[in-house]
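Why run this: before we spend reagent on co-expression, it is cheaper to look at a predicted model of the complex and decide which construct boundaries make sense. The entries below are exactly what would go into the expression plan.
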Amino acid sequence: MNLPSSAQPSTRIGDVMRLIRGRIAARSLTPGEKLPSIRALAASMQLSTSTVVEAYERLGAEGVICSRPGSGFFVAGPLAPLSMAEIGPRLDRAVDPFWVSRQSLQADDAMLKPGCGWLPPDWLPQASLRRGMRQLARAEESTLADYGTPLGLAPLRQLLARRMAERGVEASADQIVLTDSGTHAIDLVCRFLIEPGDTVLVDDPCYFNFLAVLRAHRARIVGVPMTPSGPDLVHFERAIAEHAPRLYITNAAIHNPTGASLSPVTAHRVLKLAEAADLTIVEDEVFADLEPVVAPRLAAFDGLQRVVQVGSFSKTLSAAARVGHVALRQDWVEGLVDLKIATSFGSSQLSSSLVLQVLRDGSYRKHVEGLRLRLARAAVEVGGRLKALGIRPWLEPQAGIFLWCQLPDGADAAALSQAALAQGLVLAPGNVFSPTQSAPDFMRFNVAQSQDERLFAFLRQALGRRTR
Amino acid sequence: MNLPSSAQPSTRIGDVMRLIRGRIAARSLTPGEKLPSIRALAASMQLSTSTVVEAYERLGAEGVICSRPGSGFFVAGPLAPLSMAEIGPRLDRAVDPFWVSRQSLQADDAMLKPGCGWLPPDWLPQASLRRGMRQLARAEESTLADYGTPLGLAPLRQLLARRMAERGVEASADQIVLTDSGTHAIDLVCRFLIEPGDTVLVDDPCYFNFLAVLRAHRARIVGVPMTPSGPDLVHFERAIAEHAPRLYITNAAIHNPTGASLSPVTAHRVLKLAEAADLTIVEDEVFADLEPVVAPRLAAFDGLQRVVQVGSFSKTLSAAARVGHVALRQDWVEGLVDLKIATSFGSSQLSSSLVLQVLRDGSYRKHVEGLRLRLARAAVEVGGRLKALGIRPWLEPQAGIFLWCQLPDGADAAALSQAALAQGLVLAPGNVFSPTQSAPDFMRFNVAQSQDERLFAFLRQALGRRTR
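The model came back. Tokens follow.
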């Protein structure tokens, strides 16, 4: 019931705004939390619903709260972009950096995932993993039950140091810290090096979870356009001058999503610019094992002075094991390890022992070589089928699992992805990779997950209908 | 060489201070980083070393930098307490919240660890773990190689929901999120609920890693004295009134380090105070399986409205597997899972499958019952031997692995721990547990790790020498 009020409408609107602001300040309403419904608040304050509507709308214009159609009003704030709890059914969720992760991770076996970022399980070294598990069943008591050492399993760190040396990066095992995943490695490095509000450069497009983890750290994100040989140097230099970034996060080896590889000239120039601006670089080489020819590593040129290298085994060995690693300056190791202990206490002895077993297994190199070949064939085949539909790869990548493609006639990749989801297909629309939202007609295809006829039938129909 | 200068000494000192401040502002010097040596800076600026010394000392007095005897000067700042990279040999490191973790985790097999927080590996269900590993070696391909679902392995979450129900906490499996450890669970909850500068209440004493993780989140920490039946209610109420805390982090079941159990009266009163102040409570029940009789759970009284419950399997099943869990309000789940994906992408399918196998194994309940008995016996025996040395338990705990003890005649537990380390013994001095540093003569003993004669010989000698 809307009661008449003797006060000025603007005063009454102000009362509602003050009430909500006060609750947010006192944290009885926290970021992401739903506000009282308009009807309920109007009743409790003996005001008309239109007064509450107006107050909510003004608070919305100020960015204090935000509305979600059909769901109500929610507290905005620093954490709000991450607290999307109430958004409801997955089809309603905006295409944000989490969209592809969530859809891919929660897809059931009946769904196709051409948009996901990993290989199907039967492309991974199953026999070797099973052998590793059987060996682990006979391991020492402490391997099965104890916490690991602060840096993580020493023989695995030694093996990683040898692998890094093969790629031109000199690091001792004491400079390598094991983590629970490559993502966890990046998160720890961000925790160690950046403060809320710091600016971080990323490639545009870049791996969408870089955007998600940086948002979790409340970093300001600045995108630098990507070229087939690395970041665009003119933009890179300008971004440094304009934004004084603290960090630049990029891929080494095969760039996600574009498949680009850093050229030696670009690598050298990026490092020179970083040195002049005292910029730290995080180089993620999660796809390194898929390279047939080793591309330049910033960490190799730099000697791990201002470059931190991270990686994991999720793409070529197992994503179920959760083992990542970070290699960094010796004098940063202890600080990073303190943060690791404070926030996760230690890395898994079991998982790292399993990874060590598989890497030591004579069959791993052969597995990886087979994988490269199989992926190269799949890239040719999938690329050909996409081109036949007018979907053009931006680059013919030298290796890896992705084709970064432009849709014909400016088709909207986000709308296409929403339509695909309704038909059991998880796609990866371009703008989830783009901090500037400048890839609306791009899409990333995982060639290992794009082998089912249903994908092409869907694309043919959806794009054909569109242009008809 | 110290060159004469025509400028005023105070101006020259100011120049040095401005230079260092400028570098810190520009981040060419970052928190924890070593400053140029006095000699080098004096030479490069053509100043006397005494000018630089004076400038450094003034910056030190301002808290901008800090000195570490024998190592030089380092940038202070928000991250500095966590970036202790350069502190050098472990014996030199101050007794801080990381001390016991680091010493315990990096101790080799020759060392004794009466101060550590976990059971020896041969106290854990080795046969069942080995059986579980062999079963896993025959698991589905996706279990061995794929990412898990965003919330984590569903059957394990269902089993956890049933276990929580046995302890009076009603939660659906959809309110339970798996994490990489109990510590990771607390870290995620902090990320979700607190902002830098927020105040968090902890028990005094409390588990030292609560202090470490809260420091990583830049929280203000306020301690509330502990009593044998829970936090001191007068102090708890006063702390809420004075500090308007956002969160209270405590143990459910068996309190670490004291062994206290919450009484129903205290539980009820704590919740009433929390409700009135809109305080969220994190209840860590990592030692729950060791309870013979279930103590009240705040989450049970509250129905997971303002209580978040976390736990793990590191104490009774395996610390090598790294599986933790958090149960929370349904409408907070999605936001927390977004943060989990952003910062670790997913929890380990392998580890959670192994934990599920062991929990389902008929022998687990028997294992836990045996553990309780063995710990009860060890507590009596170790308690008796400590008392004979004048070391008095603050409480005879009903269960668990710790005795929280006061040393005789105000002996300094930190000094004793440093001396013990030199003899291959990791002890846990009281002040690492105390946010107010009010337990200098207390020490936590792990009864399962205090069975070696060398411990008592050391204590006898060290305390005897002291009082002689």
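Residues 363-388 of chain B form the longest helix (26 residues). Chain B touches chain A through 90 residues (CB under 8 Å). Bring this page to Monday's planning discussion.
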